[in-house]
Write a structure and sequence with these properties.
The protein has 464 residues and is an alpha/beta fold. It folds into two domains: 164 residues, 3-Layer(aba) Sandwich (D-Maltodextrin-Binding Protein, domain 2), CATH 3.40.190; 205 residues, Periplasmic binding protein-like II (D-Maltodextrin-Binding Protein, domain 2), CATH 3.40.190.10. The chain has 21 helices and twelve strands. It is globular, with a radius of gyration of 24 Å.
Length: 464
């Protein structure tokens, strides 16, 4: 059977990142063997389909309007009912507790391993291909790679929001910096060096005005862009990590350069300030020059009276790198009707439907047509350089496809805080080794002893 151009593009994209695709998967004849989806039987009457989403109220309202448009247009098909949760974590917890998986649902890439292990989803590539969706042209290779596993496209990318730097032009004024001969990016620059980033943080810190320059969270995602950009690696292996790699030479070198800035109490928020309010609150007060964040911050920042803000890419130590908040639209393996659910999925990812959600300001769409349109760029509204979100997508480094990231984060969090916020002399070698060791308890725990009570000859007999 002839493979479509979209299907071939996907297979070739997946092979680039070594997601176990064979070379035959990129051939034009589409002859690579692959398992088909396992749709539910459709002979029975379908009363309705469910569409599961999560997010803030304004975004959920846009999803609801999209569902209403679908229901109003089709009289000979079952209606779709919206199910909404306040967050991805709440949705997952509900499903783990026994709630039915929605027929079509929004999912975070961080949950993909869970979806596969629990068999909650079914691949969407063939279903979309049959419906003429040219996803090989409409989505970036990076977005398709994010939701590819087991030689298949598991979910269609929906949102791809890279972490960027939000800055306050009243505190970080590049024109004034250049006029003073300081390191600063050009007027239309889409990237900047770490030295320029550090100079901006120092420029924004003014003790007399009570302002600080920058805050970066002491988390894996907060530090990952700096580690990767400086030639290091967060994990020791992308495919099957056994520990973090903070103590590797490349990671230590990148951290040494980065922490010289982040541990400087003159430019970063101190313990008292962090105890008083969150970094985002300090930024909204106009008292913090820069924070890192995703596109979802935009609507909240727009609501703050008098706050001016813009975005820049994450700073470059040696090479461009960032992390991303990546979401996809998935189909349930137990959908009431796989064909009908796939039809609705096509509606949900159409440019018109994605545009409706994008207008709320939270979404950085994976759909390239919408991402490059005024619907997303919103010229004349803050941030003025929204195109930075698009140009930064190609620099996203994804974490390994594991379902223990939250546990790893929790295990190393106290040491990460000591690494970033600690005072006094930094013992980088000791702290990075401790972080890696703490992560091993989650990623490669020791095997339980097969004979906890000693050898059989030494143990007491049951009668004794």
């Amino acid at each position: 059977m002839r493979a479509s151009r979209g299907r071939r593009a996907l297979l070739c994209a997946v092979s680039v990142v070594a997601l176990t695709l064979s070379a035959a998967g990129c051939t034009d004849d589409g002859s690579a063997p692959r398992p088909g989806p396992t749709p539910a039987a459709t002979t029975q009457t379908v009363d309705h389909l469910t569409f599961g989403v999560y997010g803030p109220e304004d975004e959920v309202s846009a999803f609801r309007a999209m569902v209403d448009a679908w229901n109003a247009a089709g009289e000979d098909r079952p209606p779709v009912k919206l199910r909404a949760w306040p967050s991805e974590a709440a949705m997952r917890a509900d499903i783990d507790s026994g709630a039915e998986v929605p027929d079509v649902f929004l999912a975070s890439r961080t949950d993909l391993r869970w979806l596969l292990d629990e068999r909650h989803n079914q691949p969407v590539d063939e279903l979309l291909d049959e419906r003429g969706v040219e996803f090989g042209d409409g989505y970036s290779r990076d977005a398709l790679q994010a939701f590819s596993a087991d030689d298949r496209l598991q979910c269609i990318p929906y949102g791809v929001s890279p972490m960027v730097i939000y800055y306050n032009p009243a505190l970080v004024n590049f024109d004034r910096m250049r006029a003073r001969g300081l390191e600063a990016p050009g007027e239309d620059a889409s990237s900047w060096s770490f030295e320029q980033f550090a100079a901006a943080a120092d420029f924004a810190a003014r003790p007399r005005r009570g302002t600080k320059g920058v805050h970066i969270a002491a988390t894996l995602s907060g530090l990952a862009p700096f580690i990767n950009s400086g030639g290091g690696s967060v994990f020791d292996d992308f495919g099957s990590p056994t520990s973090l790699a903070f103590s590797s030479d490349g990671s230590r070198s990148a951290l040494e350069r980065t922490l010289e800035l982040l541990r400087n109490p003159q430019v970063t928020l101190d313990e008292d300030q962090l105890a008083e309010a969150s970094p985002l609150t300090w930024f909204e007060r106009g008292r913090l020059g820069m924070i890192a964040g995703y596109r979802s911050l935009v609507p909240e920042l727009r609501k703050v009276d008098g706050l001016d803000f813009d975005v820049m890419s994450m700073p470059v130590l040696d090479g461009s790198s960032t992390v991303g908040d990546v979401t996809g639209m998935c189909l349930s393996r137990t959908a009431a009707s796989t064909p009908l659910a796939a039809d609705f999925l096509v509606h949900a990812i159409s440019a018109e439907s994605v545009s409706r959600v994008t207008r709320t300001g939270y979404l950085a769409p994976a759909n390239l047509e919408v991402a490059l349109s005024e619907t997303f760029l919103q010229s004349g509204r803050r941030p003025l350089h929204a195109s930075i979100f698009n140009t930064s997508v190609r620099s996203i480094s994804l974490p390994p496809l594991i379902d223990t990231l939250d546990k790893v984060e929790a295990a190393v969090h106290p040491t990460l805080e000591q690494l970033v916020y600690g005072v006094g002399v930094l013992d980088l070698d000791a702290l990075t080794e401790q972080i890696d060791e703490e992560s091993r308890a989650i990623l490669s725990p020791p095997e339980p002893s097969g004979s906890p009570s000693g050898s059989p000859g030494e143990s007491e007999s049951p009668t004794e």
